[in-house]
Amino acid sequence: MSLVNGKKIVLDAYKNKKAIGHFNFNNIETLKAILLACEEEKKDVIISASSSASKYISSIKLTAIITKEMASNLAPSINVCLHFDHGTIEECKEAINAGFTSVMYDGSEEEFSVNFKKTKELVEIAKKFNVSVEAEVGKIKGDKDLDNLSKPEEVKKMIETGIDFLAISVNNIHGKYPENWKGLDFKLLEKLSKENYFPFVLHGGSQIPEDQIKKAIKLGIAKINVSTEIQLANCEAIKSFVISNKINEDKNYDSRKIGEEGIKKMKELVIKKLKFFQE
Ligand code: G3H
Ligand code: ZN
């Protein structure tokens, strides 16, 4: 396994009009499923732990240690980028020190000028450690609220900080998409892509119809973040195991037996996504 930052793998995907899969994990089972899927498909991956996932695991340092060790054991032949997702500046610095090779500073709740200034400072630090940086412009909340969507002038300005890729808000949403969701704002995405030769990141990559994902990739989305769909696959698998009553047979109370049910389904889902993002 080669531990890499996100610079080359995202840029290569962008140039080839493909997207690299960014998959979030919250626990060992999910991490294992993602790594096994990527190794089987021989596809490079951005494996990602959010600030809250790291807290669940207990610390940013331990999250980095576990991920690196598991990646070298389970995914020996691919490039793995270890990404810290949706962090504060302090957490991103901690992640860099812990050995993450890529960080995302989420300054979406800040005024743009503050978001810009903090991102720029982080880029300077990250450069010294050969770590890639992702920033965010706009808020990933969707609903065509004009305050949430990325503003073209802010996107252009943010790119000047020296970041490697940028999360944009084009009516994408974290979590499950509501029935009445109006779809991605392709007009805005096209404008941003025309104005900037730069790889964009699509957060909230779960449950977006495939035709929209394809179109988004053509219009400059080079990294797609998926978490909710992986969690749902795990949840559904464990739920059917429990409902079918198999959990009461043999030694199926063993947490590894229960975990395996989820791993199987999460792995299948990640393989499907990997193939689709790079068709
Ligand atoms: O940063 C992670 C994501 O944007 C994942 O979003 O949970 O909606 O798939 P999702
Ligand atoms: Zn996100």
TrEMBL record:
Amino acids binding dihydroxyacetone phosphate: 175, 204-206, 225-228
Coiled-coil residue spans: none
Residues involved in Zn(2+) 1 binding: 86, 174, 203
Alphabetical GO biological process terms: carbohydrate metabolic process
The keyword Transferase is assigned to this record: no
Pfam family, one: F_bP_aldolase
SUPFAM superfamilies attached to this UniProt entry: Aldolase (SSF51569)
GO terms, molecular function: aldehyde-lyase activity; zinc ion binding
Keywords: Metal-binding, Zinc
Cofactor binding remark: Binds 2 Zn(2+) ions per subunit. One is catalytic and the other provides a structural contribution.
Protein residues bound to Zn(2+) 2: 106, 136
Superkingdom of this protein's organism: Bacteria
Cofactors demanded by this protein: Zn(2+)
Annotated catalytic residues: 85 (proton donor)
The protein, known as: Fructose-bisphosphate aldolase class II
Organism: Metamycoplasma subdolum
Lineage, highest ranks first: Bacteria, Bacillati, Mycoplasmatota, Mycoplasmoidales, Metamycoplasmataceae
